[in-house]
Design the sequence.
């Protein structure tokens, strides 16, 4: 158990819909990262938050957004869903944003868009 | 962003050492090398990381060449439970960014 909690574990929805994925980082971790893993793209970095502020952006679509709340949990919002958005979405956390620290990953949310 | 190159797959006999190579020829001086593994569709699991010196922990050893252009992850006594996809990653950190860039990884199959 990494200590990072992601909910829900599975999500099935239809095209055009909007969903919210939730991540609770390890206790005390200030930094949260979101990754998307699809069969043909591997693990893609989406976005990182540090202590409530966006710090780094990767291959995140404009239809996707995220935020980190004062209690440090984070939510990833996916809107106008398309079939191609079906993927595993992972959240990771680390104490700070620092070269020498480890990232701990949650068990992921499996999103299926039908 | 620094990129890594790994062989797509490797086999290893149970009980033997598994040596997984990684090339990262464009790595910068302040970028760390991280290794993670993923078993089935579980969340990636941290194994080890290093900057320039060799590192060892309870799971594995990391050997980084002097020029830092390549590294090798060593699982000293592979077990069936070590069957997984192993990712060699360069962590890119600057004022405006902090991210682990995953490559395609090496699928390690440990056989009895």
Sequence:
């Amino acid at each position: 158990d990494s200590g990072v909690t992601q909910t829900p574990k599975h999500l099935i929805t239809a095209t055009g819909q909007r969903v919210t994925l939730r991540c609770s980082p390890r206790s005390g971790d200030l930094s949260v990262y979101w990754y998307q893993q699809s069969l043909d793209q591997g693990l893609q970095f989406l976005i990182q938050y540090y202590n409530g502020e966006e710090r780094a952006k990767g291959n995140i679509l404009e239809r996707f957004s995220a935020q980190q709340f004062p209690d440090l949990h984070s939510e990833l919002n996916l809107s106008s869903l398309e079939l191609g958005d079906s993927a595993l979405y992972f959240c990771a956390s680390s104490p700070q944003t620092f070269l020498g620290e480890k990232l701990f990953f949650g068990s992921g949310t499996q999103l299926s868009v039908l | 962003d620094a990129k890594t190159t790994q062989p797509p797959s490797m086999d290893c006999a149970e009980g033997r050492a598994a040596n997984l190579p990684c090339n990262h020829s464009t790595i910068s001086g302040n970028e760390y090398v991280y290794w993670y593994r993923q078993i089935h569709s579980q969340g990636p699991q941290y194994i080890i990381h290093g900057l320039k010196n060799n590192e060892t922990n309870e799971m594995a050893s990391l050997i980084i060449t002097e020029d830092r252009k390549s590294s090798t992850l060593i699982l000293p006594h592979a077990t069936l439970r070590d069957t997984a996809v192993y990712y060699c990653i360069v962590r890119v950190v600057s004022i405006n960014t902090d991210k682990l860039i995953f490559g395609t990884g090496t699928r390690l199959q440990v056989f009895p």
User: Anything to note?
Assistant: The first strand of chain A starts at residue 5 and ends at 7. Chain A touches chain B through 30 residues (CB under 8 Å).
